[in-house]
Automatic annotation (TrEMBL):
Species assigned in the record: Methylobacterium marchantiae
Ranges in coiled-coil conformation: none
Topology within the bilayer: Multi-pass membrane protein
Transmembrane spans: 21-43, 63-81, 93-111, 117-136, 143-163, 200-223, 244-264, 284-309
Domain of life assignment: Bacteria
Keyword Cell membrane: yes
Protein name: ABC transporter permease
Location within or outside the cell: Cell membrane
Keywords: Cell membrane, Membrane, Transmembrane, Transmembrane helix
Pfam families reported in the protein's UniProt record: BPD_transp_2 (PF02653)
Transmembrane as UniProt keyword: yes
InterPro entries in alphabetical order: ABC_transp_permease
Length: 358
């Protein structure tokens, strides 16, 4: 007996809509069983993970601050994944964007006169650095046929080691008592806070703007149509005159630019200086977010908020319930697997065919 997947002729929109919700419920149920086996109360864990972060203003702000870079990076990745090319190195592009954009802040530190141009220049340099870094695996793919999965992933470690070297060496604060970090950025090099006394900064608005822009580009422009056509049928796209090479370079540039912008927004916002590490793994987590959001900008925003919520809740569970933080990462991976599985079942019918599997 073999198992076949047959496309559903009449797909239910209701089933499509409820598939990720059902997957989330199943993931929570499995997580509850695991928590119970570890000797903790599933009900208490549920409150800690999903209710407590929504009960206080500071935790809501933390959810938004973690969701913003995830959404921004994932939106860029969605362009690649929709076009059937695989940028797995957004983490490296995030780091490079933060490093080169942050270098502008260090170079202009303490400069007199009007410095209104510093922050826009930082954002532009960070974005362009991400674009340039993403184009390396793209060019290797289209000219030499090298797998973009391997090259983009390996370049992550190059970026992280470069940041570590720069923070400990050339960009280290000479008056920082030998700590491996740069000077604290001037106010002109920091993203403004949305409200006085809060931690929420303008990076959240950048992410929301990216959601709106990406939605319009994918739905209303020729470029968005080209991305969809090439991803759905590369052969038909070539007959239509669309270039695989040009599109690969374009979507990698978009993806790298979004990751680089997220990197400099994180450095100029929450962190405020260059350190040996500026990311808790946003670039890799954003891959989960992109697929959880079904490669839709609005869906990605919702998925980013959910992942950010579980991350903040996981930190609370680590403190209050002594649960390992790795349990949160396992839950996020399980959620992705279940969402993809539910998505497949909503599109295909499982058939058990008698006979010998081939």
């Amino acid at each position: 007996m073999r198992i076949d997947l047959s496309p559903r002729t009449n797909r239910s929109r209701l089933m499509d809509g409820f598939a990720p919700i059902l997957a989330f419920v199943v993931a929570v149920a499995i997580g509850g069983v695991v928590v119970a086996v570890m000797g903790r109360s599933p009900a208490t864990a549920f409150v800690t993970y999903f209710i407590a972060p929504l009960s206080e203003v500071w935790s809501l702000q933390e959810v938004a601050l973690k969701a913003a870079p995830l959404a921004l990076i994932a939106i860029g990745l969605a362009f690649c994944f929709r076009a059937n090319v695989w940028n797995i190195g957004a983490e490296g592009q995030f780091v490079i964007g933060g490093l080169f954009g942050g270098w502008i802040a260090v170079a202009t530190h303490g400069a007199g006169g009007s410095t209104f141009w510093v922050l826009p220049l930082m954002l532009a340099v960070g974005t362009l650095a991400g674009v340039a870094y993403a184009l390396i695996p793209a060019i290797l793919k289209v000219w030499l046929g090298v797998s973009e999965i391997l090259t983009s992933l390996m370049l992550v470690y190059v970026a992280e080691l470069l940041l570590d070297y720069m923070a400990r060496g050339p960009l280290r604060d000479p008056a920082g008592y030998n700590f491996p970090q740069s000077v604290t950025f001037d106010d002109a090099a920091r993203l403004p806070y949305l409200m006085e006394g809060d931690t929420l900064h303008a990076g959240v608005l950048i992410a929301l703007t990216a959601v709106v822009v990406a939605t319009i580009v994918l739905a209303r422009t020729l470029f968005g149509f080209e991305v969809r056509v090439v991803g759905a049928s590369p052969r038909a796209a070539r007959f239509a005159g669309f270039s695989d090479v040009r599109l690969t370079l374009a979507v990698f540039a978009v993806s790298g630019g979004a990751a680089g912008l997220a990197g400099i927004a994180e450095v100029a916002g929450k962190i405020g200086q260059l350190q040996p590490s500026i990311s808790p793994g946003y670039g890799f987590t954003a891959i989960i977010v992109a697929f959880l959001g079904r490669l839709s900008p609005v869906g990605i925003l919702v998925a980013a908020l959910v992942i950010a919520l579980t991350t903040i809740g996981g930190e609370g569970a680590q403190i209050d319930l002594k649960l390992p933080l790795d349990l949160t990462r396992a839950f996020q991976g399980l959620l992705l697997a279940l969402v993809l599985g539910a998505d497949a079942l909503s599109r295909y019918r499982v058939l058990f065919v008698p006979g010998t599997a081939t």
